Predict the 3D structure of the following.
Amino acid sequence: MRFECGPEWDTRIINIEPKGKIGILMSGGADSFILYELLKSIPDCPHINIFWVESGGDTGPGWDLVETVELLTGRDDIIPVEKFLKHTENDSPDYLPWNEVLIKSNLWVVEEYKLDILYNGTNMNPPSEFFPEFHSTHFGEAPAGHWHIPKYTKVECPFLHLYKYHIMDLGIKHNVDISQTHSCNEWPTAKGHCGICRTCLEKQWGFTELEDKE
Ligand SMILES: [Zn+2]
């Protein structure tokens, strides 16, 4: 199915065609939840197996909890993937950098569960060549570079070439309520999202880009 998204000045089209035995890797964040809801909206979409993986990397689970994915999806059959998860270098010699954990987790899930397609919501950091605001002190540290993404055969990342404003727009257009999603680089507090870390700011930026330049 064809999905159009983004503001007038940067409209993109993605195609998502689920077939066979499919799964999705979710963290509890907005991107993977929006992708899940898009899949669900596709007529004749096969049953979606849901796998949970932490995306906090070295910082630990933070907001990423399997309970969040249960809450978002209303499902109680989420499959946690913790096989490759090592938080700190103290887990040496088993420690792996986060990008390698993610790549190995994707490949393992496809193999172990004999999937035809595994979806994940990986997407681009906005390039600061186009969006110099990401180099300002407001945003703190410069965006992390993109990790190497291998040529997967059965892993599909429909959002890979999209920026945050495209993804937020897909959520808006398809009535996805992201208020319960968690994506913040700071540890959870009673106040919820910190509102000032890079991840929080990038989401706000996405909405602002959609509103301001229409
Ligand atoms: Zn935050």
